[in-house]
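Suppose a colleague, Dr. K., hands you the sequence of a protein chain of 120 amino acids and asks what its three-dimensional shape might be. Before reaching for any lab equipment, you can write down a predicted structure in token form. Begin with the sequence itself:
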Amino acid sequence: QVQLVESGGGLVQPGGSLSLSCAASGNIFSINAMAWYRQAPGKQRDLVAAITRGGTTNYADSVKGRFTISRDNAKNTVYLQMNSLKPEDTAVYYCNVGSYSGRYYPSKYWGQGTQVTVSS
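The predicted structure, expressed as tokens, is then:
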């Protein structure tokens, strides 16, 4: 079993910034690719950004240039730096561990989610 715990969500003004962290713990064999997803009320859960063990990244078009995903393999932690936030970024953000081969393949391991609200 792998536990993923997100932190860093909150309320921010449009144009503001937030930094999210997700720490993995439990019986961890190794950390493969990791990713951030988000889900707004009544919407599907969509991939925001993914990162491989080697640091290759991929972003949804809606966040490219504004969000940055990074990881610290030694700490089993993935981060999401969110800048120039827009109201449409409002959602619950979830982290996931999985694999990447041309696209991200999520595993069954998800964090509990952290709420990000962008509002004036």
